[in-house]
UniProtKB/TrEMBL annotation:
Residues 81-177, 200-286 form the Thiaminase-2/PQQC domain. GO terms for cellular component: cytosol. The gene is LOC100275585. Pfam families: TENA_THI-4. InterPro entries: HAD-like_sf (IPR036412), HAD_sf (IPR023214), Haem_Oase-like_multi-hlx (IPR016084), Thiaminase-2/PQQC (IPR004305), Thiamine_Salvage_TenA (IPR050967). GO terms for biological process: thiamine metabolic process. CDD domains: TenA_C_AtTH2-like (cd19368). This is Thiaminase2.
Length: 613
């Protein structure tokens, strides 16, 4: 049964309107009440931060486009075998040479596009800014020639453009020529405004490349501090420099200025150009054929040596809102519907308002006792290394508490009277975390090819809600769901639950059981994705434990028992450095290290790679 670890605040306003279910979105379900619990949960950090939101509120089109594109595409670029190997410093020299050879084609295309944008701009200041940016590109081309010589490449030699390079440069130059959604070419523009619009489109197609490289430069700078003799230090320093950041800011400011006079439809076109440019950059990095051992994508690392077992929690790991709040709301509003229709349906309860008060009382009691329980299970001193046995013992206290709390809910009768069809409709409208849906859809399409199994381990009271959520997203096929089940009589819940997983101990024992039942003829590698303290044992038992969200209690409990939390990208670069022997796994269970991510796109990029991998 679902652990009531999130029942902390009064029940949100009704999710049902009359007799039909309203869409379950963050705005209609008051999700902030239910996700900001003792677990310290929030929507994933990939959501725009308050600082980013402030920037967007100020009207920066460039920042808005970056926020929309970066969550997915920036992760897909960073997690490519090429960039992970480069960051680790063990990218083969011939592969880096090929990269910088192709980079020259980009510089030439940028210089030409800037020239065409300057011709289209009708403002002297804008033209001056574009001219300065073009000058910087030309200077970089000269520097690039010297870099090519350093790496043993003749800059005067004609180097064929690769398919991915050509795809990007053709897109950029077509945009510069005004070939955008049927727009007339720039040479056929008759008014200054039309030409200015093309200038905005050109800048919109260049800006994401500048911002992406500035972002990657900063991400990779951390590895120079670890290795002063990093072989690609000069390349990283170039894109992490304040000069390059200033150039990125300059073109973003220009894009904002050029966008001011555009219509909503024209801004939408720039947004599409921005997104397309980001995707082509990802394709460019993904097209680098890194024929050496790599840790990502994990599907490539495993093939054909390992079978991949993927496990995930559900509530607030996959979802934006917690299912317990949704199910309780359905129960209360089901009573309202039954009362309005004059049908009792064996609902031996008081008015719905009293039922709501009962739920709030259960929430309040749980909140108070949960905090006391968490204090009791923590050791007085922080362990210097993972003490798994002590953690398991501590979570036994939490398990007993959770079982007692769940029994109170069942005994109270608040879960009686729900119609199965209402539960299914609620599941269909359940909002999944950004990137989660895409991940599971890709899993379903490729699981047989990639030789992997996928399991959901959840405290959710009603597995049918989970099945409905994934079915509506088109990713139920092949998904193994392990959760509790409501008991029904004629499609109406009795209030009883078939309790299968209601504590951290139940969850980890199920995890071990599935793992032990896996095909023993093939070695396997396990990944567990979770977001709460109740997931800690599974996260540690897996070869790779990935933490989503920002739960403070998970981190507090984990650190007290010797668990370390490392950003996934940093951890993978370290693993890439260790990857010397193709036959030896660099991932081990109970290592004491858990990896943190800011979005499901990072998980997707790590496990499956981009669509171009």
């Amino acid at each position: 049964m679902l652990v009531l670890r999130r029942l902390r605040f009064p029940l949100p306003r009704p999710l049902l309107v009359s007799s039909s279910l309203a869409p379950l979105s963050p705005s209609t379900s008051s999700s902030s009440c239910w996700s900001s619990t003792g677990e310290g949960r929030r929507a994933m950090a990939s959501s725009p931060s308050s600082a980013s939101a402030a920037v967007v509120a100020e009207g920066s089109a460039a920042r808005r486009f970056w926020i929309a594109a970066s969550t997915r595409e920036a992760a897909f670029a960073a997690y490519t075998p090429f960039l992970l190997s480069l960051a680790a410093g063990n990218l083969r020299l011939d592969l880096f040479r090929h990269y910088i050879e192709q980079d020259a084609h980009f510089f030439h295309a940028f210089a030409r596009a800037y020239e065409m944008a300057e011709d289209c701009a009708d403002d002297d200041d804008d033209r001056a800014t574009i001219a300065a940016l073009r000058k910087a590109i030309l200077q970089e081309l000269n520097l690039h020639a010297s870099v090519l010589k350093e790496w043993g490449v003749d800059p005067t030699k004609e180097i064929p453009s690769s398919a991915a390079t050509t795809k990007y440069t053709d897109f950029l130059l077509a945009t510069a020529a005004g070939k955008v959604d049927g727009t007339k070419g720039s040479d056929k523009m008759v008014t200054p405004f039309e030409k200015t619009k093309i200038a905005a489109y050109i800048v919109g197609a260049i800006t994401p490349c500048m911002r992406l490289y500035a972002y990657l430069g900063k991400e990779l700078m951390a590895f120079l501090k670890q290795d002063e003799n990093h072989p690609y230090k000069k390349w990283i320093n170039t894109y992490a420099s304040s000069d390059f950041e200033n150039n990125a800011l300059q073109i973003e400011e220009l894009l904002d200025k050029l966008s001011v006079s555009l219509t909503g439809e024209e801004l939408e076109i720039i947004g599409k150009l921005y997104q397309q440019a980001m995707k082509l950059e990802v394709e460019f990095f993904s097209a680098k054929l890194v024929d050496q051992p790599v840790v990502a994508p994990l599907s490539r690392y495993c093939d054909p040596k390992y079978k991949l077992l993927i496990f995930s929690d559900f509530d607030l790991t996959c979802t934006v809102v917690d299912s317990s709040a949704i199910l309780a709301e359905i129960a209360i509003l089901s009573f309202q519907k039954a009362s309005q229709s004059g049908i009792d349906n064996n609902l031996d309860r008081a008015k719905s308002g009293e039922l709501r008060n009962l739920w709030n009382m259960l929430s309040k009691q749980y909140m108070e006792e949960y905090e006391e329980c968490m204090e009791r299970l923590l050791p007085p001193e922080e362990s210097k290394s993972l003490d798994y046995d002590k953690l398991y013992k501590g979570l036994e206290v939490l398990a007993e508490f959770e079982k007692a709390a769940n029994s109170r809910v069942v005994d109270s009768g608040v879960l009686r009277g729900m119609n199965l069809e209402d539960i299914r409709k609620a599941g269909e409208r359940l909002i999944l975390q950004g990137g989660c849906k895409n991940f599971f859809q890709k899993i379903v399409k490729t699981r047989e090819i990639l030789n992997l199994d996928i399991h959901i381990l959840s405290y959710c009271w009603c597995a049918e809600l989970i099945r409905s959520a994934f079915s509506s997203a088109g990713c139920l096929d092949g998904l193994n769901i392990h959760a509790n089940e409501f008991a029904f009589e004629e499609s109406v819940s009795t209030g009883e639950i078939d309790r299968k997983i209601q504590s951290p101990l139940d969850k980890v024992e199920k995890f071990k059981s599935i793992r032990s039942d896996a095909d023993s003829t093939v070695p396997f590698l396990s990944v567990y994705i979770g977001d709460s303290a109740g997931d800690l044992l599974c996260l540690l038992e897996a070869d790779i434990g990935i933490v989503v969200g920002s739960s403070t209690s998970l981190r507090r409990v984990g650190r007290q028992f010797g668990v370390s939390f490392v950003p996934l990208f940093l951890g993978l670069v370290e693993k890439q450095r260790q990857l010397m022997d193709e036959d030896a796994s660099v991932f081990k269970p109970r290592s004491g290290v858990l990896y943190t991510v800011s979005s499901w796109s990072e998980i997707h990029a790590f496990v499956l790679g981009s669509d171009f991998s």
